[in-house]
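Re-run with default settings, no changes from the original entry. Doing this only to confirm the output is reproducible before filing.
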Amino acid sequence: MYRTFAKLYPRKFRKKIEELLTYANVKIDSDRFIGFVLVSALLLSLVIAFNFGLLFDMSFLPLAIGSFILIMFLVYIWLLLTADSKGKFIEKILPDALQLMSSNLRAGLTTDRALLLSARPEFGPFQDEINLVGKEITLGKPITEALAGITKRVRSQKLERTIELVTSGIKSGGELASLLDQTASDLRRQQLVDKKIRSSVNMYVIFIFIAAGIASPILFGLSSYLVEVLTKNFASAALPETTTMDLPINFSNITISVNFIIKYAITSMLTTAFLGSFILGLISNGKEKDGIKFMLPLAVLSIVLFFVARALIKSLLGGLFGA
């Protein structure tokens, strides 16, 4: 049944999900996964739209469509982040694995044996990849093709370039141990450079996070309460009818409601959290998608601080303004 629902999606989308499942090490048929997510997202979006429609008196259809798109987006982001997390971990331990393989080569082992003996439990998913390469070599697959298969299961440009360099060294018959040592040194040097760059831009990350997650909600809370006070006070204020002076003050009712201001503030804060998270990812790691992990904390922090700021300001200034 799930495979039937999965065929509603384009072939390119299903192929992309299949690749992400492989990268994320999720061992499940891609069509079944897509169909299950589709059915679950439909049911969950209907439940969310029904409940939120009753609570906030909102239209059912836009809520259902928006909830469905959001759920599908979150599932896709989860796969993407899981795949990238696996790739980043392998990039981190890759210099140690290369140096261990080089030591095995210098000890007189063959290339395939040096590769297999370089697998260690602390290497995590990379140990599984090395063991899989060993099985493929045992079954008669050339070592260069077996190594190239790792790049189809791990989402990492650094690993892909390293594998290309190693396979080129194997094909050319050069001094592979020296090549591995030099590559490991280059990777470690690059990691140190990345850490220095990341530490130098932390101030910008903190500033944007404070502006989007703390300062903005407090200002919105203050302004929304000010509109509420002005609405109540101006509605009850009026000049005496006997007054004949022309004053530069015009008392009239404020047509903007407090509910509209609150909805606008929430929408603006969610938009800021959405866009700000991408900026944080771009500044901190050079990739916009790495900022997706900031999206939910920013959104939750903004909404909570907004209502907390409104409550505090109301409790402190409510007696002063009579609101």
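The two ends are 58 Å apart (CA to CA). DSSP finds twelve helices and no strands in the chain.
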